Amino acid sequence: MLHKNSEGENVVSATIRLSDYSTTPLYNIKAVVQSTNISPSTLRAWERRYNMCRPQRSESGYRLYSDRDIAIIRWLKAQVDAGMSISQAVAWLQSIMEQSSSNEQVTLPDPTGRAVELQPVAAPSRLDLENFANLQAALLNALLNYQEEEAEAILARAFALYPVEHVGEYIIMQVLVEIGERWHRGELNVTREHYATNYLIQRLAAILRAAPNAADRPLIWVGCAPGELHEVGALLLSIYLRRAGYTVRYLGQNLPVDDLVAEVQEIRPDMVLFSATTTEAALSLQPLCERLASIEPPRPIIGYGGRAFNLRPELRNDLAGVYLGATAMEAVESIGEFLSEQTRLSPRHHRAIPGRQTSKQSGR
């Protein structure tokens, strides 16, 4: 059936009558995990934070769940799998329940429908920021002491409570910055730095592989500037863009100039984005971006960002292309704006976006 979302759009829906599901507590947590394919740690984290189901206790003290509990958990997991954060999914469920006259029939929109696409990521609350700091400290301690199982548990807890974007920006990125600063101060040896950094890179690479890649959206290439070996920013941006519904190809570290220009001429992506953390890498982008900007139309929009451009804004002045923002989350918003403007001005052809003093560059 059709259901109207908050913007009045018709979306595919599935009707669940909660009265069809028994409230008798029968199933232990192992049975729920097998039925819903959700981990015990994630389920417990959701219960503690959102109280979305209330398992009863057996005489021995074990949690017992009903069929209705399992139906709700399955629906919430489907929303999260489709791209929502758990907080958004719970709020949506509560809103639907409150609007229903009773539990005899509650319409829950299909997680594969339009309603769950491109959900905005809300800014974290003050309490969230405090919790992020605690998770950062715990994750850093685990990694610097080679406690991989503990690091996995901490990240599992973080991903259970927060959207990927928040975990990436406020936990993983901050931990990597602290690791780098400790290494520069001589407080951390190379072996521990490499272990911790590579663990987080592998974790992000796994998330990217699992993220759905749209087939009919703008094609965006993301990679690191020539000579740039730090890829976390580019990985995070690739993940966020896939979650936002774009078709993304992650190209990796230290991109070769001649090969890249030739590939862009052949494939014609809509955007080519670069990350640079050092001044040297940022300067290496100048000849590359000039060559990309000189390609015959249709040519891609060229974008760039990273720590180098945040610390030294003057590096943006003579670079062909557009500065995307201080963080990967800001970059996603900028990319949407640039692509929308491109479509408005030239719906059938690509256009070059001038890179000299955009509003983001000048701070206006």
UniProtKB/TrEMBL annotation:
This protein's name: MerR family transcriptional regulator
Pfam family name, one: MerR_1
HTH merR-type domain ranges (all copies): 26-95
GO MF: cobalamin binding; DNA binding; DNA-binding transcription factor activity; metal ion binding
CDD domains noted in UniProt: B12-binding_like, HTH_MlrA-CarA
InterPro entries: Cbl-bd_cap, Cobalamin-bd, Cobalamin-bd_sf, DNA-bd_dom_put_sf, MerR-type_HTH_dom, MerR_fam, Meth_synthase_dom
Keywords of the record: DNA-binding, Transcription, Transcription regulation
Organism the protein comes from: Caldilinea aerophila
Ranges for domain B12-binding: 217-349
